[in-house]
């Protein structure tokens, strides 16, 4: 399996067993309920040649400077799709550092906001903090999975278990459990109607990892950096597991082979060449390669290649390497 890039939202809060003390052993946690809120990295692992710099981050964001909102204002709900919304936090103060985690969500009911069922899971992965300038926004998805689908009802029948739902009329955004005093603010949002939340055997409240809203130029730069990481991953795999296995994981089918053995490889630099979309762009990349024996069309030492990164909808990214554009 590919290693996951730290700092990117890879969280499947749907796991069997105990979760951060919320559920006792042998409770079932059901993917059918939440509808797979999964944020995955397109590319993985830092550059082998990269060095860690001791950069000084701005002060940590304070709750009072982050203005919360939700879109749509009350979310959307249907018996088939469940509840879905996006939480937003806008920095109204000085530039600050936001500690990244899943945003904890708790269903609540009544004038006293009494908790209903089990809240969303948080704190399972450590992420890289993000910096928010004045006016910048961060966001996270939130959902309450439907318990009315046939898939969920079948799961309940097969396990002989029970959701035992109770109804919530709002959700409470809770502060980051790791840094309660330096976090996004706690806030109440009303739901569009009463929404069933499981209180037994299952949980169906889910939230995503908080992320910074990027400008198109920023998003493109992130894609370039992640693409360089993806190519370094390929070189690492090529060396460790051999050309055949590595090429099947990373390259387009027409470039998969198992002949040249790599002793070591590093991505030295990259330059943008063409951009069609986040899922289709080309970089001119410089590599430092050394081989065990025969090296085919590659040079020993520096190699320049035009590398096109493509990704089908919801699929793995694949690379095509060429000597010319």
| Overall geometric form | globular
How many extended strands?
A: 15
- SSE series: HEEEEEEEHEEEEHHEEEE
Number of domains: 2
What number is the mean pLDDT?
Answer: 80
Count, helices: 4
Residue share in helix: 10-25%
> Which regions contain 5 or more consecutive residues with pLDDT less than 50?
1-54
Cα end-to-end separation: 30 Å
Major sheet, described briefly? Answer: 5 strands, antiparallel
Q: Which structural class do the helices and strands define?
A: alpha+beta
Q: In percent, how much strand structure appears in the residues?
A: 35-45%
Q: Output the radius of gyration.
A: 23 Å
Structure explained in plain terms:
The longest helix is centred in the last third of the chain and has 26 residues, at 216-241. The protein has four helices and 15 strands. It has helices at residues 31-34, 150-159, 216-241, 243-250; strands at residues 66-78, 82-91, 96-98, 105-109, 114-116, 130-132, 137-144, 166-173, 187-197, 205-207, 211-212, 262-277, 280-291, 301-311, 317-322. The protein folds into two domains: 31-212, no CATH class; 216-322, Nuclear Transport Factor 2, Chain: A. The two termini are 30 Å apart. α3 (216-241) packs antiparallel against α4 (243-250). β14 (301-311) and β15 form a beta hairpin. The chain is 15% helix and 35% strand. It is of the alpha+beta class and 325 residues long.
């Amino acid at each position: 399996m590919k290693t996951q890039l730290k700092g990117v939202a890879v969280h499947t809060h749907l796991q069997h067993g105990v979760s951060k003390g919320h559920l006792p052993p042998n409770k079932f946690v059901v993917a059918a309920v939440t509808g797979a809120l999964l944020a995955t990295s397109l590319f993985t692992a830092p550059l082998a040649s990269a060095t860690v710099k001791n950069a000084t981050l701005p002060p940590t964001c304070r709750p009072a400077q982050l203005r919360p909102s939700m879109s749509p204002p009350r979310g959307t709900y249907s018996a088939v799709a469940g509840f879905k919304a996006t939480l937003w936090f806008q920095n109204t103060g000085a530039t600050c550092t936001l500690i990244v985690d899943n945003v904890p969500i708790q269903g609540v009911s009544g004038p006293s906001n009494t908790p209903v069922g089990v809240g969303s899971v948080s704190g399972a992965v450590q992420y890289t903090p993000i910096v928010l300038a004045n006016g910048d926004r961060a966001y996270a998805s939130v959902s309450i999975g439907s318990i009315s689908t046939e898939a969920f009802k079948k799961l309940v029948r097969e396990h002989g278990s029970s959701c035992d739902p109770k109804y919530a009329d709002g959700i409470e955004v809770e502060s980051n459990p790791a840094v309660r005093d330096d976090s996004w603010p706690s806030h109440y949002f009303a739901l569009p109607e009463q929404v069933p939340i499981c209180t037994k055997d299952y949980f169906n409240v889910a939230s995503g990892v908080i992320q910074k809203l990027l400008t198109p130029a920023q998003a493109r730069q992130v894609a370039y950096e992640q693409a360089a990481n993806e190519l370094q991953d390929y070189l690492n795999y090529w060396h460790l597991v051999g050309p055949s296995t590595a090429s099947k994981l990373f390259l387009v089918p027409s470039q998969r082979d198992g002949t040249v053995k790599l002793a070591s490889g590093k991505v030295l630099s990259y330059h943008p060449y063409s951009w069609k979309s986040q899922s289709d762009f080309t970089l001119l990349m410089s590599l430092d390669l050394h081989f065990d024996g025969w090296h085919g069309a590659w040079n020993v030492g520096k190699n320049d290649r035009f590398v096109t990164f493509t990704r089908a909808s919801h699929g793995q990214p694949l690379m095509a390497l060429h000597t010319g554009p």
